[in-house]
Amino acid sequence: MQTYANKDFYLSAFLVADGFELADYFRENGITTFIFNESDELSEAVRKYHSLSSSIEPQRYGNAIKSLKTLIHCEQISNSKSNNYNANKYKGTK
């Protein structure tokens, strides 16, 4: 399955708030890359995010931001799934 990888925290929070499942993530040199399964719906959501033509319930967006912050700042990051994947397999994906 094709994946969509990005390092944009707020875009990723928007996608989570819009109902897209975070498929994976990894940290490399202190930067988190978020991975989603590629689909036409996801591409459309990304387009709408960048064109400022989408709306998300503020509470839902805020909760998604908090969830992702918890994920990337967790003190147990060494035990998270981020270390179980090879970051290189996502390089070059959209």
What does this structure look like?
The protein is α+β, with helices and mostly antiparallel strands and 94 residues long. Helix content is 38%, strand content 19%. It has helices spanning 9-17, 40-50, 58-73, and strands at residues 3-6, 22-28, 31-37. A three-stranded antiparallel beta sheet has the order 1-3-2, with helices on one face. A hairpin with a 2-residue loop joins strand 2 and strand 3 (31-37). Mean pLDDT is 85; it is low at 75-94.
SSE diagram, text form:
Layout lengths: L2 E4 L2 H9 L4 E7 L2 E7 L2 H11 L7 H16 L21
Antiparallel strand pairs: 1-3, 2-3
Helix pairs in contact: 1-3
Strand arrangement, largest sheet?
A: 1-3-2
Give the DSSP E fraction (strand runs of 2 or more residues): 15-25%
Radius of gyration (CA) equals: 13 Å
Largest sheet: 3 strands, antiparallel
Overall morphology:
globular
A few lines on this structure:
By secondary structure, this protein is α+β, with helices and mostly antiparallel strands. Helix content is 38%, strand content 19%.
Characteristics:
94 residues, alpha+beta, three-stranded antiparallel sheet, 3 strands, 19% strand, globular, disordered C terminus
